[in-house]
Amino acid sequence: MDSSFAERLQMLSIQLVPFIMAVVFHEYAHGFIANRWGDDTAKNAGRLTLNPIPHMDPIGTILFPVINMLTGMNLLFGWAKPVPIDPRKFRKFRVGLFCVSFAGPGMNFILALISSAVFCMIHLWVHPDFYLFEPLVAMCYVSVSLNYALGIFNLIPLPPLDGSKMIEAFLPIELARKYEKLARYSFLILMGLLLSGAFTFLSYPIRFCTNLTLYLMTRAFNVPGIF
Fold first, then answer.
1. Overall domain count for the chain
2. Does the predicted TM-score (pTM) go above 0.90?
3. pLDDT tens digits for 148-166?
4. Exposure pattern of 160-182 as b/e (b: 16+ CB <10 Å)?
5. Choice among 27, 134, 174, 180 that is catalytic
6. Is 27 tagged catalytic?
């Protein structure tokens, strides 16, 4: 087996579990909070579950990770199937829309904190000679970074990303409808930004949040020799 391909396969094995957890928990959070606000659409569709299979998208959850493996990208890029939401069922439309929209990125930020805590626990309680020590540490680091990446990316105010729905919660109905029409161009806009390298600006807040979280968590757990 080619050594570079073997390295990419190893990287995919480290990234895949955090990636699937990140996108599945993201969508589950949308459905869970929607259900709390009176919308049982996700529950009735069988999407109020942490089982990854109902959330998997053939392109976003399978094809893109494979492309990542073949091209050697440093971080997985992809998505899960969006959880069906019917805002008309919310007990309070605007507050419900905002909370449900923020639930996905919010869950990713929580997972980043949990992953950083596990990162510290491994350093404290797992012997470095344990054969899975380095892969587990790498997996936790990737989980912190990937969850911040997914959370921050989804806060971009471009329909149908979560950030746009959070803004719509404050807009008059007519203006919100006009704003939603941008969704028909969103894929082209996102691909254009991706191919042009414009998304590199997101690497700065992602890196900052990742390093700050790990620094503060290692101090809280009193883990020596990390930062």
1. 1
2. yes
3. 999 999 999 999 899 999 9
4. ebbbbbbbbbeeeeeebeebeee
5. 27
6. yes
